[in-house]
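worker-03 picked up job from queue 'complexes'. Input manifest follows; four sequence lines, order preserved.
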Amino acid sequence: MRTGVWLIGARGSVAATSVIGALALRAGLTDPTGCVTELPELHSPEIPGLGDLVFGGHDISSNPLAKKADTLAAAGIVPGWLVRALSDELSAVEKELRPVPEAGNQAATADLIGADLIDFQRRNDLDRVVVINVSTTEAVPEPHPAHADLGALEAELATSRTLLPPSSLFAYAAFRAGCPYVDFTPSTGARLPALDQLARRQRLPYSGHDGKTGETLVKSVLAPMFAMRNLRVRTWSGINLLGGGDGANLAEPAANAAKTASKQRVLAETLGYVPQGTTRIDYLEDIGDFKTAWDLVTFEGFLGVPMRMEFTWHGCDSALAAPLVLDLARLTAAAHRAGRSGPLSELAFFFKDPFGSEPHALAEQWRVLRGFVAGLGAGDQV
Amino acid sequence: MRTGVWLIGARGSVAATSVIGALALRAGLTDPTGCVTELPELHSPEIPGLGDLVFGGHDISSNPLAKKADTLAAAGIVPGWLVRALSDELSAVEKELRPVPEAGNQAATADLIGADLIDFQRRNDLDRVVVINVSTTEAVPEPHPAHADLGALEAELATSRTLLPPSSLFAYAAFRAGCPYVDFTPSTGARLPALDQLARRQRLPYSGHDGKTGETLVKSVLAPMFAMRNLRVRTWSGINLLGGGDGANLAEPAANAAKTASKQRVLAETLGYVPQGTTRIDYLEDIGDFKTAWDLVTFEGFLGVPMRMEFTWHGCDSALAAPLVLDLARLTAAAHRAGRSGPLSELAFFFKDPFGSEPHALAEQWRVLRGFVAGLGAGDQV
Amino acid sequence: MRTGVWLIGARGSVAATSVIGALALRAGLTDPTGCVTELPELHSPEIPGLGDLVFGGHDISSNPLAKKADTLAAAGIVPGWLVRALSDELSAVEKELRPVPEAGNQAATADLIGADLIDFQRRNDLDRVVVINVSTTEAVPEPHPAHADLGALEAELATSRTLLPPSSLFAYAAFRAGCPYVDFTPSTGARLPALDQLARRQRLPYSGHDGKTGETLVKSVLAPMFAMRNLRVRTWSGINLLGGGDGANLAEPAANAAKTASKQRVLAETLGYVPQGTTRIDYLEDIGDFKTAWDLVTFEGFLGVPMRMEFTWHGCDSALAAPLVLDLARLTAAAHRAGRSGPLSELAFFFKDPFGSEPHALAEQWRVLRGFVAGLGAGDQV
Amino acid sequence: MRTGVWLIGARGSVAATSVIGALALRAGLTDPTGCVTELPELHSPEIPGLGDLVFGGHDISSNPLAKKADTLAAAGIVPGWLVRALSDELSAVEKELRPVPEAGNQAATADLIGADLIDFQRRNDLDRVVVINVSTTEAVPEPHPAHADLGALEAELATSRTLLPPSSLFAYAAFRAGCPYVDFTPSTGARLPALDQLARRQRLPYSGHDGKTGETLVKSVLAPMFAMRNLRVRTWSGINLLGGGDGANLAEPAANAAKTASKQRVLAETLGYVPQGTTRIDYLEDIGDFKTAWDLVTFEGFLGVPMRMEFTWHGCDSALAAPLVLDLARLTAAAHRAGRSGPLSELAFFFKDPFGSEPHALAEQWRVLRGFVAGLGAGDQV
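worker-03 finished. Artifact:
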C-alpha cells in the first residue's frame, strides 16, 4: 500500500508541517498526537500506515523546504531539533517538489500537471497518489455553463486560460491522472458537476471542503449541546484574528466571504435555525500562525431567561491541520482501494463544509467515520 | 397517568422555578425552552405530559411559595407578570407543601415522611408519586456498616437519629411508600447498598446524581472533542462563582468537596487520563443565582505544540435546573410504569455523577437516552 | 443657576435615561452612582446642582417619553417602579419636547430651532440652556469650503438645505441663540472652523466628541499601563457587539467608520505608536442596549517574550452614558458662567475623541478635570 | 557609580532572567523593553546605568547559572541564541554566587552573610551593593517581642536559630554590612520595627514588597477607573494559575495566604471599600512560568444597572519581574547615594504591597515616582 501524497501548495506551512510530522513519526521521533486515524477506534488494516506515505507536490513558490522548516521552527510550530534531525529526509522530499506548470490553455496545463503526477507515481513505485489541496483560499469563481457538463468543460478547456479556478484545474488533472483528490481549503476544488462526472467515470473518490481545525470544531460540539438541551441560541458572533499566509489571503474580501460562509453552515444545520450574528476574520500579521478566535453565544433558557457563554480558542492552525491532512490522505487512499468513487460524505468529521447531508454534530460525524472505517474491508480491493 | 412530583426542598429556588414553569406551560403562557423531553426526538406516549404533573413537597423553611416567586421575579429568574398570572395555581400548590417531619428516631421520621407521601397520592388521586431531592447539598456522611445491608439498616434506624443523612432518609421513606426517587443534588440519596436492596425489593427505579447544568455540561462536549481529535489535554482548571442558597451552602468545605469531586469525573472518564488542574467553587453572595464559571484548558497538538482554550459560562442555575427536574420526574415516572427497578443509568444525560458505567460524552448519553425512551413501550405497564 | 438641558434626540434611550435619572435623583429615589460630578473631589459651588436642571429637547420621533420609559424598564435599563413613581414629572418634561423643525433652507431651519431654545429658556426662567446632542451618529459629511469661514457659511445657509449635517446645524442654531453646545456623539457638531468662529464671537463654550463609556474607557487606562511599564504593544484588536438604536445606525458603513476612527485615537496618542489591529462594531439586534466588547492585546516584554491580555466588557450603554450627559450639562454650564468660550479641552475625561491635545490617559484627564473644576471660581461670573 | 546587585535566590528564574537581560543590554543585544527606568520620563544622571551593574548572590541551590539559562531558553523565557552569546559573561557571574551560609545561631549566620557582601564589594571595587530578595515566598512568621526592638533583637539572635525568617535575616545582615535592601517578594524582609531602626541608624534605604507584575498591575489601573467614574464595584474575584518554582511554593497554604492578602490591598485602598470576592492562586506545574490570571468584576452603574467585566492576563512572570528588579536596584542605589534612609515609599509603583500610605492607583504612583527621580539630584551625594 505505498501511497503518494501530492500536496498543492507543498511549500506552505500546512504542507511543510504535515511532511515534517510524517517523517518524524516514521522515524519514531514524536507521538501521533492530533492524528485521528491513530486512535484505537479507527485502527484498520485497510488503511495505509504512516510509514507507507511518500510526499511530493506543486507550489508556485521556490522557497526551499528546509528553509520553510527553519521558519516554522522559529515560529514555534515545529521543534528545531526535529528539523535538524530530519534534514536528509527533507532533502529527499525537496526533490519531489515541482513548480506549478503553465501552458497556453488549461487543457494543456492539466496535461502537464498530470504528467508530474504520473512521473511521481512511477518513480516511487506507488500504488496510488492522493492529491491534496492545501494552498491558499481562492475567491468564489464566476459561474459558467461548462462547469455543469464534462463534455462542455473539456471542449472549453482547450482554449480557455481561466475557465477553472486553480483548485478545480488541479482536481481535473488529478482525476484524469487516476488520482483521488482532497480539498482541505474552502476553494471550489471538485465541487462542480462536470468534475463529479469525471471522478465517477474514472472511479475515483474525492473529499472536502475546508479542514475543521479551530473555532468551527468547537461550534460543532457546542451547537449540538444547546440543541440537545432545548436551549434557544439567540446570537452567535465570532471573530478570528490570524496572521500567516492564510491570514493575509483571507484579508481579501472575496476569500473572506468564502470562508465565513463555510464557518456558519454548522449552526444552521445543527440548530435548525439561524441565530443572529456573523463570523469575522481579521488579518493580524504579528500574530503569525497562532490564531485567536473569540465567540459570544447568547441563549435563552426556561421561561425566557437570558444567558450567555464566551470562548477563546488560541490554536496553531498549521499544527491542527497537518495531522488531519495525513488522516485524509490515508482514508481517501483506503476508500480508493476499497473501490469507492464520488464524494466521501463519511469524512464530514474533518470538514467545515462537507459533501452531502451528513450531520454537522461532531459526535454524529465521529460515528459515521467509525462506520466508514469498519466498512472498508467489505469493498472491492483494487 | 396523573403523576405526583414531590419536591424535597420545595420552597427553594430550583423547586419554585420548576413549579412556576410547569404551571405556566400548562396554562400555555410560555414555551418549553430547556425541556429536553419536549424535543421531537424524545416524544413518546409512554411519558406523562406536563399537564399530568401535580406538585407537593417538604421543606424546613416556611417561606410562602408566593413570596419565593416574588423573590425569583425580582432576581430576573422568572417573569413578574407570570407570577402574577399564576397566583391562584401557586396557592393550590402551597396547600400541598409540608414541613419536614421529625420524630424520636429515623424509623419513626421515615414513617411520617411516608404518610405525607401517601396522603398526597390519595388526596390527588395520583397513579404514582416521584420524589425528587432539590434541597441543598449535604456533606459526605460518615460510613456505617448498616449502610450496606437493608436488615441491619432497618434495625439501626429504630434507635438512631443520625444513621442516614437526610437525602438518604428521604430515599428510604420514598421507597417504603412505593415512590421512585431522583437525586438532583450530589448528596448521598439512594447511593447506599441497603437502599438499592430496598428499591429492588419494592420494584422501584431511582436516578441521580447532581444535575448537569453548566460548566460540567460544557465539559461533557468539549472533553470528547479533544479525545476524538487525539489532542492531549495537559491541564483543565476552572472556577465557579455563584451566590444564592446553593452557593452559600457550597462554601462549606465538606459540601464543596462533594461537589468538586462530582465535577471532575467527566474528564477522567472521557479522556482516559486525568489532566492537571482543579475545579473550584467560590461563594459570591452578590452574584445571586447567575453563576459565572471560567475554565482554562491547555492542550498539546501535533509535534507537541502547546495550545489553549478558555470559556466563560454565565448561566442562571435555577432556570437551567428547573426544566430538567420536570424531565426527570416524567422519565422516572415512565420507567416506573414500564416496570423498571434499580438505578436508571440511561438517564446519565442529566447528571454530573450518574449511576453505572454509561459514557460521559454528552452525545453518547443522548443516544442512550433516545434508546431508553424508544424502549419504554416494551416494558410491563404497571 | 437654573440650567436648561436641551437634548437633541430627546426621545432616545440615552436622553430618556438621563431625564429619568435626574428626576429620580432630585426626588431622592436613587444614588448618584455613575455621576462623576458628584464625587467629593469635584464638588464645587460653581457647578449647578442636579436639582437646578430643567429638561427639554428636539426629536424626529413622536414616541411619548412615558412609553420610552416603559421600554427602558422592560429592557432592564431603568427600574420599573421608578418609572411609575415619576410619571407626573415625566409628563412635565414631555411638554417641553418639540419636533425637529424644517424650513425651506438651513438658515430658516436654524431660526426655528433657535426660537424653540429661546422659548424654552423664557418659559422656564432659566439662566442658560446647554444644548446636548445625543442623537444617532451621522456619516462624516462631504467637506465644503464654507465650513471654514463663518461669513461664507451664513451666506450659503440662506439657500442650501444640506450644507451642514444635522449635528452642525444644531450647533449653529445653539450658538446663535446664546447656548453652549455639547456633542456626546462622534458626529461633526461644532467641529468646523466656521462654528468655532461663531462660538467665540458669541463667547460660548462647547465640548465633545463621543462619550467614552465602554471599551475606549478601558483602553484609556490599559494603554497607559503598558506605556508606563515600557511594555511594547504589538497588536490591539477589538470587536463591539451592540444592539439598540445606536447599534442599528452604526451598522451603516459610513457611521461605523466615524466611530471606529474615534475609538483608535487613544492608542496612538497614549502609546506613541500605532499597534496592528482594528476595532470592529457589529450590530446584533437581540443584544439590545447591553453591549459586549472583546479586546485582545498582544505585547512584548523583556527580551522579546510574547504575552497577551484579553478583556470582555458587558455594559449597558445608556446607563453608562446618561450620568455623563448630566455631568457635561452641569460642567459646560459652569464654564459658560465662568466666562469660558471655545472648546473645553479640559473635559477630555468624558470623550473618546476630545478637543485639543490633552492627554488620552484617563488618570491625566482626571487631573486636568480636577484643575478645571478648581479654577471655575476664578473666572468672570456671567 | 559601580553598583553591586546581590540577589537572594540568585539561581532562580527571576534572578537568572535579570542577570541575562542586564548582560544582553550591556552587550547591545536586546532592547530595554520592560525597563521602566529607561523611559525618557525617568532619565536622570543620578541613576547608575545598566552598564554599571555587577551581579552576585546567595542561593541554597547549586544548579549552575548556565544550566538555569538553558532551562529558561527551553521554556521560551529567554532566547536561546542570547544564552549562547553570553556564556562567558554568565561564567563570570557564576563565580560571584555563594551558598547560603549557616552557623550555630542567627547572629553568626548574619556575620557570614555580611562577610560575603563585603568581599563582593571589595573584590569588584563597588561604590555600593544593593541586596534584593527574589527567593521564594515564605510563610508569615510567628510574632515575637524582639521583632519590635533592635536591642532585644540583637540579644536574641546570639542564641536563636529561628527568630527571624530568612528574608529578615538577610535584611539584617545587609543593613549591618551597609547595604540597602529590596524585597521583591511578599515575605517579611525589612518589615519589622527592629530592622527599620537598624536601617535608619545605618542611614540605609530599603523598599518592597512583592513586585507588581501581572493581575495586580491591571487591578491598579482598573480599580481607579471605576472609582473615577463613580461606578460601584460589587464583586471582584480572581484566580491565578501558575507553575514554576514560585507556583509550587505558593501551593503551600501559608505562603498562599501571604500572597493573596497582598493582592487584595489595592482594591480597598483605591475604591475606599472592599468588594466581595477573593483572589485565588492555584499551582499548575504544566503551565510553567507563563501565568494565566482571570478576573471577574461585577459593578453597578446609574440607577443600579448591573454590569460586568472580565479579563485574562497571560504573562511570563520572570520576564515581567526581571526588568523591575534592575529598575529597583538602580533606583535604590540612587536613593542611597542621595542620602535617603528608611522605607522608600515613592517606589510604590513597583509593588503590590508598598511601604507607606502612597496611593495604589498606578497613575498616581507614576507621578510620585517621577517626582522621586526628579528630586534625586537635590540630596546629599554620598
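worker-03 released lock.
Chain A has a mean pLDDT of 92.
Chain A has two domains: 3-210+319-375, 215-314.
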